[in-house]
Structure formats: C-alpha cells, structure tokens
Amino acid sequence: MSKLFDLTGKTAVAIGGNSVLGSSMALGLAEHGAKVAIVGRNIEKAEAVVKEIEANGGEAKAFQADVSTKESLEQLAVEVEKWSGGWDIILNAPGKNSPTPFFDLDMDEWDDIMDVNLKGIVLTCQIFAKKMIEQERKGSIINISSVSSTTPLSKVFTYSVSKAGVNSVTQFLAREFAPNGIRVNAIIPGFFPAEQNRKILSEDRIASIMNHTPMNRFGNPDELQGAAVWLASDAASGFVTGTLIRVDGGYGAMTI
Q1: In the chain, what are the domain boundaries?
Q2: Which of 19, 121, 153, 203 is deepest in the core (most CB within 10 A)?
Q3: Does domain 2-199+221-253 have CATH number 3.40.50.720?
Q4: Residues catalogued as catalytic
Q5: In whole angstroms, what is the distance from residue 87 CA to residue 137 CA?
Q6: Contact at 8 Å (CB) between 68 and 116?
Q7: What is the pLDDT of residues 185-227, one digit of tens each?
Q8: Coil, strand or helix: which one is 103?
Q9: Using the 8-state DSSP alphabet, how is residue 153 labeled?
Q10: pLDDT for residue 238
Q11: Distance CA 186, CA 147 (A)
C-alpha cells in the first residue's frame, strides 16, 4: 500500500513553495521521494525551504519567478527543465490577499491580486502543462484554493473572487487535460495562519472563525501534506480529477 504514495523518480514544481502553506506541502512531496523545484519571488525564502528539504534527505533547488508575467514563467520552465529534464507534478500555491473594503478598492489592487492568484495559475498551466503533454508525461496539477471560493468571506472581496476562479479553472482544465493523462484537482484549505491572512485576524474575526469551524482550531500547515501527496501520487492516479478537496476542519459543513 505504501508504494501507492511513493513519489520517487518524480519531479514537482512548487509555485509559491516558499510560502507557509506551499513550503509545507513541498516538504511533504519531498519526504515521499519527489525532487522539488521551490519557486517564489523571494529567493532567500525559497533557499531556506530547499535547505530544510535537504536536511531531511531530499533533493530540491530554489528558483525565482514572478507568476504574473509569462516571460518569467517561460524562463522558469527552461531553468527547471535543465535541472530535472521535466516534471510530473505542479503545485500551484501562490497567494496574495488584502482587507480593502469593496468601495475603497482600486483596480490596481484588484489587478495585483488577480494577477498572482488567478492569472498566475492560468499562465503556469499553459506553460508547464503544455511541456508535460509534449513530453508525454502523465501527472498531476494541484491548485490551492480557499474556503472563500465557495462561500465568500467578508473583508477579502478580491481574494474570494480570485479563488472562485481557481475552482473553475481547475475543473475546466481537468476536462481539457484528461485525454493526456494529466489530472487537475484543487485543495480548499480552511483557516491556516498564513502570511496573507494574519493582518486581518483580529480577536473578533478569530472568534467568528472558531464559531464556524467544528474542530474549533486553526489548521496546522502540515495537515495539508496528506491531501497534496495523495493527489500527486499513484493512489489518486486512476480516476481522481476535477475534484475540490476540503481540508477545513469542517468549515464547509457548517451552517448554524
């Protein structure tokens, strides 16, 4: 049974792999044998994740890229291909947030968040999935969504809209890439104290979150590893595509 989750011989490209949640999932992929490209705008943070993976006996390399620009991602693909020859897993975990009220929102901020959270995933899939198809590599694309994608949250209008778009992109591309043996799924994390949401976690907001989370706590980033490894592995390779997997402490099941 353990062989189903063995990622030995596979290469993963972790976009946003230097973030709190992205790095944890990247570590999980590496611990199961994957060679991991850690990609982020902050190369120092990416290199720190690489060191952690290497300290655990894994193999990884840090790469710098801006997911909002096609040219940057095209150059990234060239560099990763030189390093690994190709890739089998794409983890799309870029993230940007803002608490700006709707009527105060200007389009520069809207574009900035959309460029990272949604456009970045579209561009990454265009470039990296195309190369997988050209190399006849079957594999897995894992997009990181949010509970706000299905039930919009207060104070994070643009973020919520962008993540709803991620869900739609995930299901569209699952249909698009299925004939090529490439599966596309999304993980919907609940509330994890990541960088982009710390600034809006007031005492009242935390209380509201706990009241809507049956497990009555924040998630630990390591609790996303199981879903990521499963979706990347042969355990899900047969028939799992176009799914939105919740790891949210029951948030999505809560009403009153």
Answers
A1: 2-199+221-253
A2: 121
A3: yes
A4: 159
A5: 8
A6: yes
A7: 999 999 987 655 556 677 888 888 888 899 999 999 999 999 9
A8: helix
A9: P
A10: 78
A11: 11
